[in-house]
Amino acid sequence: MTFPMYVAKTADVLEMTEVLPHERLLADGVVHHLDPWFGVAVFNSHQWTSGNHPDPTFQQFKVLQNVCRRARGKTIRVDTDMFNATQFASAGSVKAADLWGLGGEYYIWYDFFSVPQLQAGAKLNQPADPDS
Q1: Residue 131 placed within a domain
Q2: Is 105 left (phi over 0), alpha (psi -120 to 50) or beta?
Q3: Range of the domain at 16
């Protein structure tokens, strides 16, 4: 079984003020299937800061937004990991300006909004509580 790769445009990531789940951003049209003809996908790896939400205080996500700003401004460098740097003579740093030529837009893959969240989906699909 396969699942399509959902991503958000960097411009949309920069406008976020909270990290919302996949189901919500999909319904809002913020996340969509990646079309490799339209740009470059960037996989974001991070540590969740709580058990049920990746970043409830939005502190880590602000760092991701800063990286996105620097990538769009072509003022960032991506270094090769230590293993590849020692194994391959051609390994080294890549500047964002060099990556930019691969596509017109950067798309961000972030687990909480790129993959369906069962808990969030259940909450979104529940009828409103008439007693509240």
Answers
A1: no
A2: beta
A3: 6-125
